[in-house]
């Protein structure tokens, strides 16, 4: 399986064949250091199949661009001259923005999936795109204040709880937010002067999980993520994300799970995200939206009969959607992110029964896992959206 996946569009590399090959090799080396962490030149030589001299030249060029640096290993007694270790520069960052119905999350994300700083901006009502631009711009200025000399910003990545046209970052529809046809990427670029890209939040969280979490190295898995704005997800088959004709595939939140159920924001009734909600679970255990990080521990420790009954009911409904996805996509792994991971962990044996009604041949080799770094998935996914542009052509993307 390839260690990278084509989750977003790439900008074609211009120039002659030799120049294109050099840029491709630069991309390969930087991508490996980003995804795998610090690597020796010897490891890069083995992983790329290039000769040592070529790898040395590529590392030197990436270092000159300010994207990596080399250091001798600090431990180990290896005979002979030790191979230098290539590290991603810690000051190369992406700005991450995730608007939700109850808050706007803004963060700084370094290469290799490191969240360096983050802030949550509370919102009494779903913010408008103009609100997001205004509040996020102020938060960005605050996060960068005093760090300008040590940071180089690649751009802004935005995780939108809705359908996004990735080619230009236009939000086609985000029903929970009340948005339609909003040129969010352009608005943010004009306000901040940084290039900005936007994509569906669930797809970005899935990308983070695929590169740095439980989905790393897995060719076939499905992903569900739940948050304040609903439930989304996606499927990777044969190592590639199934995106659909227009990029809107993976709306697991609109799987039908209950007859004569609650009306969903999409207009239908009985959708998964209308029946299984973070808000309902928070209310049941007496937590405010800003305290969602405590939900898992509260659910797991609660012995209240009403809370246990709610957990059981929501797991039963989630099981319908999970079973459908397993039957359709035949994965080896189901990853649950956001509050769905909390719900699954709190269910104990009930959680283990999520696959019980799937077709036996489809379910017998499937495992279920909670997402890694659940609280930072979306911020890391935003970073991946930005860093994919840098890695695609390291020599051409201007750093700020």
TrEMBL record:
Molecular-function GO term, any one: DNA-binding transcription factor activity
Stored SUPFAM superfamilies: Actin-like ATPase domain, Winged helix' DNA-binding domain
Listed InterPro entries: ATPase_NBD (IPR043129), HTH_MarR-typ (IPR000835), ROK (IPR000600), WH-like_DNA-bd_sf (IPR036388), WH_DNA-bd_sf (IPR036390)
HTH marR-type domain span: 29-70
Family: Belongs to the ROK (NagC/XylR) family.
PANTHER family named in the record: BIFUNCTIONAL UDP-N-ACETYLGLUCOSAMINE 2-EPIMERASE_N-ACETYLMANNOSAMINE KINASE, ROK (REPRESSOR, ORF, KINASE) FAMILY
Protein name: ROK family protein
Organism placement in taxonomy: Bacteria, Bacillati, Actinomycetota, Actinomycetes, Micrococcales
């Amino acid at each position: 399986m390839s260690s990278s996946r084509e989750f977003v569009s790439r900008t074609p590399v211009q120039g002659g064949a030799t120049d294109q090959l050099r840029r491709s090799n630069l991309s390969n080396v930087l991508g490996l250091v980003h995804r795998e962490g610090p690597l020796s030149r010897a490891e890069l030589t083995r992983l790329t199949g290039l000769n040592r001299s070529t790898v040395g030249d590529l590392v030197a060029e990436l270092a000159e661009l300010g994207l990596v640096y080399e250091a001798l290993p600090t431990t180990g007694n290896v005979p002979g001259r030790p191979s230098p270790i290539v590290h991603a520069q810690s000051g190369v960052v992406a700005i991450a923005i995730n608007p939700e119905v109850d808050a706007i999350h803004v963060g700084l994300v370094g290469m290799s999936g490191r969240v360096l700083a983050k802030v949550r901006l509370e919102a009494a009502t779903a913010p408008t795109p103009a609100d997001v631009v205004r509040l996020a711009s102020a938060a960005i200025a605050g996060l960068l204040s005093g760090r300008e000399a040590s940071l180089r910003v690649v751009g802004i990545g935005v995780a939108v709880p809705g359908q996004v046209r990735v080619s230009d970052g236009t939000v086609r529809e985000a029903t929970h937010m009340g948005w339609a046809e909003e040129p969010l990427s352009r608005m943010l670029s004009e306000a901040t002067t940084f290039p900005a890209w936007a994509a569906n939040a669930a797809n970005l969280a899935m990308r983070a999980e695929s590169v740095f979490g439980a989905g790393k190295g897995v060719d076939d898995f499905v992903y569900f993520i739940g948050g304040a704005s609903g439930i989304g997800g996606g499927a990777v088959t044969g190592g590639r994300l199934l995106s659909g004709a227009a990029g809107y595939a993976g709306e697991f939140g609109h799987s039908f799970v209950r007859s004569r159920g609650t009306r969903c924001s999409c207009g239908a009734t009985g959708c998964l995200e209308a029946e299984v909600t973070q808000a309902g679970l928070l209310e049941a255990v007496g937590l405010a939206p800003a305290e969602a990080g405590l939900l898992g521990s509260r659910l797991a420790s609660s012995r209240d009969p009403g809370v246990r009954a709610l957990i059981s009911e929501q797991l039963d409904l989630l099981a319908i959607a999970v079973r459908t996805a397993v039957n359709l996509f035949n994965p080896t792994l189901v990853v649950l992110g956001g509050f769905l991971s909390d719900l699954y962990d709190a269910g104990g044996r009930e959680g283990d029964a999520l696959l019980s009604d799937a077709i036996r041949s489809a379910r017998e080799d499937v495992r279920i896992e909670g997402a890694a770094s659940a609280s930072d998935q979306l911020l890391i996914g935003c970073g991946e959206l930005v860093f994919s542009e840098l890695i695609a052509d390291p020599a051409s993307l201007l750093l700020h």
